Amino acid sequence: MTQLLDLLDQFTHQHDQNRLVYNQDWLANQRDLIFLGQRCGATAIVDDYGNVYLDFPGQINDQPVATGSHMDTVKYGGRYDGLYGVLGGFCAIQQLYEQHGIPKHPIRLISFSEEEGNRFLAAFTGSKYYTGTLQIEKLLDNQGITFDEARRLAVTQLQHLPYVKAQHVALPVTFTELHIEQGPRLAQNNKKIGLVTGIVAQNRYEVTVHGQANHAGTTPMAQRQDAIATASLLMTKLYALAADTAEDLTFTIGEIHVSPNVSNVVAESCRFTIDCRANTNDQLMTFVTKMLQLLEQSKRTSVIETLHVPATRLSDDLLTQNAALATQMNYSYQTLFSGAGHDSQIMSSFVPTTMIFVPSEAGISHAPAEYTKPADLLTGVTLLSASLFMQANGE
Amino acid sequence: MTQLLDLLDQFTHQHDQNRLVYNQDWLANQRDLIFLGQRCGATAIVDDYGNVYLDFPGQINDQPVATGSHMDTVKYGGRYDGLYGVLGGFCAIQQLYEQHGIPKHPIRLISFSEEEGNRFLAAFTGSKYYTGTLQIEKLLDNQGITFDEARRLAVTQLQHLPYVKAQHVALPVTFTELHIEQGPRLAQNNKKIGLVTGIVAQNRYEVTVHGQANHAGTTPMAQRQDAIATASLLMTKLYALAADTAEDLTFTIGEIHVSPNVSNVVAESCRFTIDCRANTNDQLMTFVTKMLQLLEQSKRTSVIETLHVPATRLSDDLLTQNAALATQMNYSYQTLFSGAGHDSQIMSSFVPTTMIFVPSEAGISHAPAEYTKPADLLTGVTLLSASLFMQANGE
Lengths: 395, 395
Known about the structure:
homodimer, alpha/beta, Aminopeptidase, ten-stranded mixed sheet, 17 strands, about 35% helix
């Protein structure tokens, strides 16, 4: 069982986790995963968006049960978000085959290309492509490289690896995603396992305040169109609005871009992002309506919606099955709602989907301090392995 | 008299004005200026900070009268800020020698290396080095290049040009700086010439708010240390404080830097700059005291002063002389106070110093839209030429 820890080390040799989709580190890891799967007897498949599928055989050659997560990270993220579900999924499958031999149905490990939306203004592109729900505009990263350019360059290299099949594959019969919680509840409640009932509704926006660049010393205050003055007031009002809204709403301004961003020049423009989430679509829409009204009152301010993901209810049946297994294996667990978006959110519209969480120390995630105890990582893998065994040997 | 317009074109062949100190465009222009001066009989001198001096002969070989300005620009600035004083100064000297022959005293044209403080966190480094008042810490630009590294690389190339003297030269007996107003007053009052009585007091600060990077969806709002939430509230309060203070105070937040600057990550840190100016030191200090008190109340917030320049009174004698010349030449003029900092502010502590302004259309500066009518540019040059003639033939 040290295999998981060794694999996590091997796949995170870089100190900063910067596997932005289609970059060099991302490519190296998807390639290494393909080699790893092929060495263990899996068929490796890569679709045109760089999703990697490792298909392990069943006694009957029908549609597989699947597990997995995403290979990309946020910029300067942690070691576990996404990667744990890919490598932990791999280890769970290995454990199953070693302990029980070939199951009735095949098992598929999926390493989705992209989920975080950090390189381009589009998130969940891997699972959305897989499920046929991706609509993508022309997107540029901050180096001016288009999504399609980056995608083709990287995916071609993966698809041309030996014995790799380049194709779009059919959906599995179920999907189970193993993931760190990314919040503090399991750790605070001293539980080993979280079983996810549903996933938050999530919208993202990009707000741009337009001003007029001018000299910081000679332009009278009354004659300025200072984009930062307007934007900071807007941001303050938005935070206050969020604080006055439903308790479980999260509201985050994570990115600010100023032009020309020079200390002695009145700002020409100030662009910032909004990430807001709530447990129900109604809660989120109530906030969003007020938020857009507030932004509309500001002159020279434009707003673009960059992400809209409705709240999702995951499979009750799979959750009940996993709860029974956890009880049987003597793992303390609780059911919870996920404040983070996940590929499971996309998958769940098409196949019965469930998620297994393990604790995040201090609830920290999307940061280098992200940490889960090795014993907790292994507990998650063992439960996943038992769950996959049940699913792959069922009717 | 089309020489000035041709020279401005030649020296601003790039669409964006990005002559940050010691960069390639800066180097090309200082080099071209040296060649230009040498072709017209000037001795070219370059000191260790890359200030370029073109010394034109007088009948008596004593200390020169001087004119000039700075060669650097702000990022994405305009065509005239700094450069007009250098090339306009050159044309004024040419006009003087052509019309009147060699004057009694020598004349020096100075092209200061740096005034804007845009590449490194230090401004006026050219004139401060010339006057022996520069104290410089180890500074890095946003590529991680040190000030000293950049300086040595660029200056060595200038100092090794043919017939260039590499030395520190003594101060001139007077200094006259020709500059665009960078504000709207001359244009609004329909005046051709501004004669500057003094220059604002100016302080700059860098404020950093420290937070804790975390997941934008899973971290409960009450448990966050969101650097942008704190910073935007601070910025809003600072703008309000500035609005409540003296009428002629200017207050600008021009730069914001967020880390990690990712839409779905709570910000780890948010750093912003403050540029504040007032006509008197007392007015500025009254505001700064309140400002620092406000910032001190904010936890996890640190403040560094990056620039402190007291208000300056320029030479009354030189202004009176220039006013008489303007009247004689039938140029409408007004006296005014400068809201922009200038090399003259540094020079005036050591030698009698004056400034001649020409109108800025719509008062726009530090932006690509910066514009002064050709006729107004030439009026400034003609007045400067007459002023230098008086000064270089006086006692």
